Amino acid sequence: MNQAEKEEYLREYGILKSEGKPFFPYAIAKDSLMAVIVIAVIIAASLVLGVQMGAKVNAATSSYDPRPDWYFLFLFEILRQLPVPDLVGLATIGIPTLCMILLFLLPFYDRSPERRPERRPVATFSAIFVMGAMLFLTINGAEAGTPYQLIFKTPSSVIKAGPAAVAKFEGGRLAIAESGCEACHTIGSNGNPGPGPELTAIGARIPAKGIAKTLVNPTYPMPSFKRLPPKKFEAIVYFLSQLK
Amino acid sequence: MPKLPAPPVPSSLKSPPPRPGESGGPASPVDQAIAARNSVVDWVDERTSLTGAVRWMMFRKVPKGTNWFYTLGSATMFAFLNQAVTGVFLAMYYRPSPAGGAYESIRYITNDVFLGAFVRGMHKWGATVMVVLIFLHMARTFFFGAYKYPRELNWVIGVALLILTMVMGFTGYLLPFDERSYWATVVGVNINGTGPLIGPYLSDFLRAGPEFGADTLSRFYAIHMMLVPGAIAALIGAHLYLVAKLGTTAPPWTKAQKNPKLRRTEA
Amino acid sequence: MSDKHSNQQSRYTGDRLIPGSFAGETVTRRKFMSGTAQTAGAIAAAGFTLPALGFAFGPVFHEVPHHWSPAGPPEMFNEDNYVPIVITLTPGVGEVGKGLVYVRKHNPKIDTDPFDKNTPYIAISARCVHLGCDVRWVSAAQRFVCPCHGGTYNVLGIRVAGPPPRPLDRFFTRVTNNLVEIGPRFSVNDELRRFSPRDPGEPLDGIGQYLYPSRPSIRI
Fold first, then answer.
1. Which of helix, strand or coil describes residue C13?
2. HSE-up of B249 (CA within 13 Å, CB side)?
3. Residue A43 pLDDT > 70, yes or no?
């Protein structure tokens, strides 16, 4: 903004202000009503949702799955989706620091006098993009399971095949969750993105025999599962072959 | 009872007629209370000259077109007040001791203290509400272009307040001392540690040592309880002063009426 | 003496007509007093700020003593699979000072690196070196799997998937009085070369060991 634009703004603002109303009681009435709404929401949340007592802290457990509070879920999801060791510092420190600097300096690099959002397309779209990205990451982070559980709808073909098939499918579900497959494979909304291929529809691509062969004699870095008990092994093969 | 005629006395001996606004006879209790309040206000004002500041703050004009979006800032401040008050009262029962104390005191607050679960719930959900409101307030400021001249400095203060609010969220997380608290803190401290060169020392500073130890919890408690709230309160003061000084923005679509007396005529 | 207070003006203050200025005067009274105010104020503020900062940053420079914790008799451990052991890392703080360690006997077939030749037991810390969640040993897959951000390590604790920047940390081990004991922690790089313990998230290969220096509070 140059000097003329600054003066133009101040003049316009002065007129608008002179046409306005006093802060007390007109604006503050809205503020007070809003305060009533805010405290009502807080009290309602406290009464309805309440507080939970979690298990007492235990630093030596591998059976707890740490998850952040909802307003840090977006960061959690960024960290999960960047499985590259060299980029750890970028995801943890680099991106948040850059965002903070960009936020702090916003009025110093966006110096145009225009204030209407529809006439500032770059600013408006980048803000909407950032908000959408954060919402997307938050939802994905909230839905992210752990590598030790497998939440997946039993396919209707398995249900049709009778209770024995369903039991075998459930056994496979348990065996996969126990065997750490999701450390490297995505199955539906479970598991990590790579380095293994996605298994959500593996049954459509590879027949059961091929799956069993891969489990026994896989390509590096996948470990061989030939030492699994045969019942578990068959259950895993059955489960994966039904994913179509 | 019929009213007796007034005795014929010279006007110089008559009591003066009541002044406008005063009724004859002894003042009613309400009038006495108002008079007492006025004299107290006068007494304070004579010694502090506060009315000028109050008038400047309360009777400034807000521009035409101000709408409900403009209440988000004060709502955020109100949520902060809720956090401050409930937090002070939670501190009356909380013991920041890792070896059997912190978790037990939270359990005591939740299960045994009168209104304990309610006040703790207000603090917990108040945090969520405050984070939501501060983001909405920032979005309003951004889309209305309210960070532009002459309000750049207020935007910078606002970003500092946003970051401090997130710091409050992070440090307050540890205090209930359950599983979630502990692991979130471990991950958060290690995130700080990934900064090159100074990161490892920053982690040691946050933990008060190389591992999570006896002083980590009290350190987080002091940061959550005194350091950051003090900074937030001071910055809110500066933020509000600048809002009052520069005035709230008008919505960017509002245009001033064409007033030939006030507007420059185009040549 | 009298020369000093003559009408001759100092070249520093002559143009300002300040009373009391004299020839050769380089610091005016006003300058001196404002300097005094600022210096005294700074000294007074430093008087409480510096001790407080020292108080807060003290632990960064204070070395924490090492100690050894018992893990169990040697019969507990074998060469092929890990046994989870809970040891005390920080005494006196209860559960929060505990740590999970996976222990197995040294196996010459897989522990081929030169640094572990004389190590009787391999003790691997469960602390994921990405951001510090506790990994789980999945024996079916022969992998350590982290529940947080997808870190996965092989049987030696070397990364196979996910974001961890170095292998899992290890502990010194020894056998005394027929009891396996676990000592101080150390970090390793991809060749399993040993370094002073680092925090999670800090790489040790290439420039990493210089970008993330060892700390005075914990060294081996």
1. coil
2. 23
3. yes
| Model pLDDT for residues A56-94, shown as the tens digit of each residue | 888 888 888 888 888 889 988 888 888 788 888 888 888
Domain boundary assignment for chain B: 63-246
- Distance (Å, rounded) from C-alpha C24 to C-alpha C18? 14
Q: Do C212 and B200 touch (CB under 8 A)?
A: yes
| Residue A195: closest C-alpha in chain C | C161
Question: How far are the Cα atoms of A151, B110, B120, B138, C37 from residue A35, in angstroms, in the given order?
Answer: 42, 26, 20, 18, 45
**Token pair listed for B81:** 């007040």
DSSP designation for C115 = G
- Cα A212 to Cα A243, B115, C140, C167, C205: the distances in Å are 14, 59, 15, 30, 38
Mean pLDDT of B33-52: 93
3-state secondary structure of C51: helix
The beta-strand segments (E) located in C1-109 are 69-72, 83-88, 98-105
B63-246 architecture in CATH?
A: Up-down Bundle (1.20)
Chain A residues within 8 A (CB-CB) of chain C? 56-66, 76, 79-80, 82-89, 91-92, 146-148, 178-181, 183-184, 192-196, 221, 223, 225, 227-228, 232
- With CA atoms as reference, the chain C residue closest to B196 would be C211
Q: Hey, are the CB atoms on C199 and B197 less than 8 Å from each other? A: no
Interface test with C, best of A57, A61, A146, A225 (most C CBs within 10 A): A61
Helix boundaries (H) for chain B = 29-48, 50-58, 72-91, 102-111, 116-143, 152-174, 179-193, 199-207, 216-222, 228-246
Any chain B CB within 8 A of the CB of A220?
no
- When CB atoms are compared, the residue of C87, C136, C152 closest to A62 is C136
Averaged pLDDT of chain B: 89
d(CA B143, CA A123): 8
Q: Is A122 exposed, middle or buried (0-12, 13-18, 19+ CB in 10 A)?
A: exposed
For residue A136, the distance in angstroms to the closest alpha carbon of chain B comes to 16
> Is C131–B190 a contact, with Cβ atoms under 8 angstroms apart?
yes
Cross-chain CB nearest to A15 (options B75, B122, B259): B259
What ipTM score was computed for the predicted complex, to two decimals? Answer: 0.86
CATH number of A69-144: 1.10.287.980
Cβ-Cβ contacts under 8 Å for B214 (sequence gap 6 or more): B98, B99, C90, C92, C93
C159: contact with A, CB 8 A cutoff: yes
Neighbours of chain A (3+ CB pairs under 8 A): B, C
Residues A30, B70: C-beta atoms closer than 8 Å: yes
**Cα–Cα distance measured from residue B212 to residue C200, given in angstroms and rounded to the nearest whole number:** 13
Domains of chain C: 2-61 (no CATH), 69-211 (2.102.10.10)
Domain boundaries, chain A: 1-50, 69-144, 156-241
CA atoms within 13 A on the CB side of B194: 30
Domain at A156-241: CATH architecture: Orthogonal Bundle (1.10)
Q: Extract long-range pairs of C208-212: CB within 8 Å, 24+ residues apart.
A: C208/C165, C208/C166, C211/B196, C211/B197, C212/B196, C212/B197, C212/B199, C212/B200
Written as six digits, the tokens of C76 are 């507990």
Which pLDDT tens digit goes with each residue over C78-99? 998 999 999 998 888 888 889 9
CA nearest A191: which of C139, B229, C147, B257? C147
What pTM was computed for the model?
Answer: 0.88
